[in-house]
Structure formats: C-alpha cells, structure tokens
Amino acid sequence: MTKKIVTLSGDGIGPEIMEAGLEVLAAVAEKIGFDYVLEAKDFGGVAIDKQGLPLPAETLVAAKNADAILLAAIGHPKYNSAKVRPEQGLLAIRKALGLYANVRPLKIYSELKGLSPIRNVENVDFVVIRELTGGVYFGEHTLEEDKARDVNDYTADEIRRILRFAFETARKRPRKLVTSVDKQNVLATSKLWRKIADEVALDYPDVTLEHQLVDSCAMLLITNPQKFDVIVTENLFGDILTDEASSLAGTLGVMPSSSHGVGGLALYEPIHGSAPDIAGQGIANPVSMILSVAMMLRESFELENGATLIENAVEKTFTDGVLTQDLGGRATTKEMTDAILARL
Ligand code: NAD
Ligand code: IPM
Ligand code: MN
C-alpha cells in the first residue's frame, strides 16, 4: 500500500532541511522498497503570507488524512509583534491531531563528543517524553497594559496518559528507569502530576520511578547526564530541558523528534526552530531532519531496516569528519546530505 506523507517545510531553514530529508527518504525507500507519495502543504509563516493564517484548513485536512507528517520548522522575527504568528499554527496542529506525546531522544555520537561544552558525555543515552497538548501552552493567556496572565492547567487524564507513554517507553529500554520531572514544591499541577505518577507506577512493577524537581534536573542534565533513561515532564519544562540537553550532543542540529497521539497518526520534526540567523545560506545541519525521517520509518511504518540504514549512514558521515558549521566543520547542507547519501 502506498503511504501518504504530508510535508510541511515552513520557514527559515525549514525548506533547506526538508529537501535534504526528502532526498534521504527517496534513496532509502528505493533500497528497501518503501512505496510512498508526498503532499507538500503551506504551514507557518509562508501560510500566513499566502493565505493569512498559519494552519490553513486544507493543510489540516491533508495532515489528518496522511499516514505520517514531516515538519521542518516555522517562525520568523518579522511576526514577533504580529497578532497572527507561525507558532500558533504549530500549537494548533499538535492540538488538532491530539499529538500529546513528544519523544525527544538524545544520542551522543562518539565522533561528536569533543564538541560538547560538557566534558563528561560518555554513555549518555536518554529520551525525554514531553507532554505536548496541555499545560501553560494551552491555558488562557491575557495581556493587558500593566498585567498579564498565563494559566497552567492539567487534568488527571492528561497526566495519566503521558505517564503511561513514558512507562511503556521505559519498559522497552534496558535500564527501565523513569524520571518524572515537576515543580511539586510550588505548583498545584505538579502536585497532581506526582500523585498520578505514583499511581501509574503501580501498574509497572518492572520499571523504576524517580521524581526530580525541574530546577535540579536542569543542573543534573549537565553534571550527571548518565543518570537519566526516560525523562517525562510537562509541556513547558520539556521544551526547555530538551534544548538544554542538545548541548550534550553539541548542537540542536542533530536533535529529531516524534509526536504521537491516540489514532496512530504521528508527526516528525526536529526540536529546533527556523534558525533565522543562518537561513538562506545553505549551511544548516540537515541531520535533525534526516533523523526525524528515520524515526518516521521506524515508528509509523515499522521499517526498522530503513531507520537503521539512515542512522548508520549519519554516524559514518561524522566518523569520516564531514561536519556542518554548527559541528565545527565547513560542510554545507548539500555536502552533508550528499555525504550521508553516499554512505547509505
Ligand atoms: P532556533 O532553534 O531556530 O535556533 C537556535 C540556534 O540554533 C540558532 O543559532 C540556530 O542557528 C541554531 N540552529 C538551529 N537549528 C540548526 C540546524 N539545523 N543547523 C545549524 N544550526 C541550527 O531557535 P530560535 O532562534 O530561538 O527561534 C527561531 C524561530 O524558530 C522562532 O520564531 C521560534 O518560535 C521558532 N521555533 C520553531 C520551532 C519549530 O518549528 N518546531 C521550534 C523552536 C523554535
Ligand atoms: C518546539 C518549539 C515550540 C514549542 C514553539 C515554536 C511554539 O520551541 O517545538 O520546541 O515551544 O513547543
Ligand atoms: Mn522548543
């Protein structure tokens, strides 16, 4: 059966890295006999410019009818004080598709160890499960001249399903350790979070649960990153901790993600943004997008062989010293992509 993949290239470096990701997808598909069609749709700033809103109805309809969605990046400073912003489209598509579980793995490639500002990144291997459709992102926001308010809401059901997702993830990993991150010493939502985490843990006697406050977790990510296996946390904390974690890998440019919901439809995107500071120069690191394609093959299409082909080719490319600027090298997006293609 031909699979339908909707592509949302978005803004800034988005189209540059999407092109790279799709080249790799085409080459791998050819090798493993994966049959797919692509449908490109407007999303983010480009959609605002063309159609007046960041998530046009036809884009959402196409996404809903897809077998998987690839998203590159959205956003541009020119919308910073605009009423209609690209980021609203990103939150809207996550919510509309019910993509509550954002999976952000951190793998340290041995060739990149020297790049991290952190000295000790030996044996770091964890995944952050970020709650993606609740919390302060989706609470009421009011902005007045002299006061502002953002509401952080979580229901027990929202917390339970993301904790279950984390425990299921941990169950498939050798260490079987879940670290639930909250701010239980201050926030009511975190008090509920911790209570539910303890309850869910009773259903997973084979998995160990630890609790960690978010501030000290931020510290431990740098001083003792080996401590972690599966981190599960609310939307805002997960956003912040994963950009922090990227510094262990050396750059945001190697960080992919997947977002899952209830219906089986998933969306794959780098964790970084549209990188306006380097957009249009052809120097963005395409690896985050290429590894997101690998996650798609594995998680949406059960094509472990295709995913592994890509991941091995990326690793080999690093070993051979082909590195983009964010990795301290000089390779352009195209050179990096060609080097990966050559090693598939
Ligand atoms: P950013 O992630 O775009 O960039 C942060 C830094 O990392 C920049 O110096 C950038 O050059 C670098 N970087 C990021 N990806 C890279 C890559 N693939 N290769 C090389 N370098 C890379 O964050 P920002 O600058 O704070 O935000 C820019 C815009 O992106 C904002 O509008 C923001 O809202 C948006 N954003 C979108 C997403 C998304 O689409 N999922 C995620 C984060 C931020
Ligand atoms: C991310 C981004 C988004 C988020 C922004 C652009 C709304 O930072 O995907 O990590 O905060 O979720
Ligand atoms: Mn982010």
TrEMBL record:
Catalytic activity annotation: (2R,3S)-3-isopropylmalate + NAD(+) = 4-methyl-2-oxopentanoate + CO2 + NADH
UniProt cross-references to InterPro entries, sorted A to Z: IsoCit/isopropylmalate_DH_CS, IsoPropMal-DH-like_dom, Isopropylmalate_DH
Coiled coil: none
Principal cellular location given in the protein's record: cytoplasm
Listed GO MF terms: 3-isopropylmalate dehydrogenase activity
Segments forming domain Isopropylmalate dehydrogenase-like: 4-340
Keywords, sorted A to Z: Amino-acid biosynthesis, Branched-chain amino acid biosynthesis, Cytoplasm, Leucine biosynthesis, Magnesium, Manganese, Metal-binding, NAD, Oxidoreductase
Gene3D superfamilies assigned to the protein according to its UniProt record, in alphabetical order: Isopropylmalate Dehydrogenase (3.40.718.10)
HAMAP family attached to this UniProt entry: LeuB_type1
Protein name: 3-isopropylmalate dehydrogenase
Gene that this sequence comes from: leuB
